[in-house]
Amino acid sequence: MTQTEPAAHDGRAEELARDIDWDALHARAIQMTTRSYVPYSKYPVGAAAWTTDGRLVSGCNVENAGYGVTLCAECGLISELVATGGGRLKGFLCVNGAGEIIMPCGRCRQLLWEHGGANLVLNTVRGFKTMDQVLPDGFGPNDLDHYEEKIS
């Protein structure tokens, strides 16, 4: 949680999720799995999110022979978000090639925190969760601002 953004409370995820078209996100994420480049793992991943200004952004995973430089689907989604005007994410999900909802990895949770914050809603295998539930005490831009204020 950042210093200026309150954490969502129990039940808040479901409340925040009500105005999100999850079927459209799921369909886009599945579509994105067909664009994945996965010659090594054979595990396609697609991600999709709504922005607070109503845009739909998405991404797919892109592998590389140097495994450490593989790009997760969330990386592509965040690139599209920034390239199309920036803004904040409000609803997110990712799927595997079978269309099953999966959880973002730790690195991608940090990316999602940066661009959605504590109240970004994720559709997970265990229902709706806010980012502060899947990444408690997340580190974000406000932590840097707070530090700069302390040393100034």
TrEMBL record:
<comment type="similarity">
    <text>Belongs to the cytidine and deoxycytidylate deaminase family.</text>
</comment>
<dbReference type="Pfam" id="PF00383">
    <property type="entry name" value="dCMP_cyt_deam_1"/>
</dbReference>
<keyword id="KW-0378">Hydrolase</keyword>
<dbReference type="GO" id="GO:0004126">
    <property type="term" value="F:cytidine deaminase activity"/>
</dbReference>
<dbReference type="InterPro" id="IPR016193">
    <property type="entry name" value="Cytidine_deaminase-like"/>
</dbReference>
<dbReference type="InterPro" id="IPR002125">
    <property type="entry name" value="CMP_dCMP_dom"/>
</dbReference>
<feature type="domain" description="CMP/dCMP-type deaminase">
    <location>
        <begin position="20"/>
        <end position="142"/>
    </location>
</feature>
<dbReference type="InterPro" id="IPR050202">
    <property type="entry name" value="Cyt/Deoxycyt_deaminase"/>
</dbReference>
<protein>
    <submittedName>
        <fullName>Cytidine deaminase</fullName>
        <ecNumber>3.5.4.5</ecNumber>
    </submittedName>
</protein>
